[in-house]
Write a structure and sequence with these properties.
The protein has about 425 residues and is an alpha/beta fold. It has 14 helices and twelve strands. It folds into two domains: about 150 residues, 3-Layer(aba) Sandwich (Rossmann fold), CATH 3.40.50; about 150 residues, 3-Layer(aba) Sandwich (Rossmann fold). α6 packs across α7.
């Protein structure tokens, strides 16, 4: 699996990043104790009747890291490597991410340890509904609003919304975001993460004096975020020279035809053997000389043992936690400009917020309105992080964490502690 994270505890990384930023902020110990760790953790057993009649037990989690600034918000992933520590890390990052883009949500995350590629649609639906029933005490439009993540999609959200609504006796579209448009979803939601990545890359190029037109791009992970970012960069005139997915890596020094590649992946499910390209290894892909590298796979894919091979000017983290702290230090020393994940990929949660607002108001916006609002949020947030980066002379990741943690800390100070 080319886009699978290697051994490494993402939660340890999340805590290390927190401590580093909190130290620079001189954050008082009382506040640290209140915002560092998850507020609520639920682990559930999910018995599912499989197509052959036998019952298989899955394990699922829902973690609410913080609800200080508003309802918890975060995706649900179905993946064989889901662990509680991974979900805790992702929930933690969601808290800082929501605060960085200044939307009134806290952080949450959910996941089931399973392999949806080996399951039928019926088995996935039954598992989803059983999981929803198990986490009913935690979720709701005023409490905790799930969304799609790895190997979940708008159909998954429709099942969750329906299951939750059936228990209440009336439709409650605001319980999830990333739903189908016909059930209260928002225009622009499906491409929001990749579009947000694109806006932050534009801002970084403007800051660094890089002409996006003709800039060379490498995308590691050609799922939703990676493919949308690649398409928008291609449309802007950038040259996407290599992409990868879980089946292989394709490369063309003159640039890949991204619309055709997206079309092929939609038909056959992979990028392998794309015409007018050559196959390269994952190691070769990361080492390619380029202006922009977009890690859009899973966490911990760039580490201390391979970060030295990178030859990019900008690393735009479309994935959650693709760089370990050791990789951060190496790339910073090599003067690589990093757009940290809690800023770079925050377009998804931003448009999720827009969807939730539209559901609550029963008033929906057109796609261009969504894009304009998203661009304004992403560019403003980039400037906020960049200002801290320059004024405090700290790496971009620490600057982003300082911004997010600082906003959550301020909310804690204002609310104080009950009782």
């Amino acid at each position: 699996m080319l886009t699978t994270a290697v051994t490494g505890n993402a939660y340890d990384v999340a805590l290390e990043n927190f401590d580093t930023a909190a130290d620079v902020l001189n954050l008082e110990n009382d506040v640290r104790e209140m915002i560092k760790y998850p507020e609520r953790i639920l682990t559930v057993t999910i018995p599912v009747r499989m197509d052959d009649g036998h019952i298989h037990r899955f394990e699922g989690h829902r973690v609410q890291h913080s609800m200080v600034r508003g309802p918890a918000k975060g995706g649900i992933r179905f993946h064989p490597q889901v662990t509680l520590d991974e979900v805790k890390a992702l929930a933690t990052w969601m808290t800082w991410k929501c605060a960085v883009v200044n939307i009134p949500f806290g952080g949450a995350k959910g996941g089931i340890t399973c392999d949806p590629k080996r399951m039928s649609l019926g088995e996935i639906e039954r598992m989803t509904r059983r999981y929803t029933s198990a986490i009913l005490p935690l979720i709701g439009p005023e409490r905790d609003i799930p969304a799609p993540d790895v190997y979940t999609n708008s159909q998954t959200m429709a099942w969750i919304m329906d299951t939750f609504s059936m228990t209440k006796g009336y439709p409650i579209p605001g319980v999830v975001t990333g739903k189908p448009i016909s059930l209260g979803g928002s225009l622009g939601r499906s491409e929001a993460t990749g579009r947000g990545v694109f806006y932050t890359i534009q801002s970084a190029c403007e800051h660094l004096g890089i002409q996006l037109k003709e800039a060379t791009v490498v995308v590691q992970g050609f799922g939703n975020a990676g493919s949308v970012a690649a398409q928008l960069l291609y449309e802007a005139g950038a040259k996407v020279i290599a992409v990868s997915d879980s089946t292989g890596c394709v490369y063309n020094q003159n640039g890949l035809k991204i619309p055709e590649l997206i079309h092929m992946k939609g038909l056959v499910g992979h990028v392998r053997d794309f015409p007018e390209s050559e196959s390269i290894t994952p190691e070769q892909l990361l080492a390619l000389k380029c202006d922009i590298l977009v890690p859009a796979a899973l966490e911990n894919t760039i580490r201390g043992d391979n970060a030295r091979t990178l030859n990019a000017r900008i690393v735009a983290e479309a994935a959650n936690g693709p760089l370990t702290p050791a990789a951060d230090r190496i790339l910073e020393a090599n003067d690589v400009f990093i757009i940290p994940d809690i800023l770079c990929n925050a377009g998804g949660v931003t448009v999720s917020y827009f969807e939730w607002v539209q559901d609550e108001q029963h008033l929906f916006w057109d796609a261009q309105d969504v894009y304009n609002r998203l661009e304004r949020v992403m560019r403003t947030s980039f400037k906020d992080v960049l200002r801290i980066h320059e004024e405090r002379n700290v790496p971009m990741r620490i600057a982003a964490n300082m911004l997010g943690i600082g906003r959550v800390a301020e909310a804690v100070r204002l609310r104080s502690i009950y009782p």
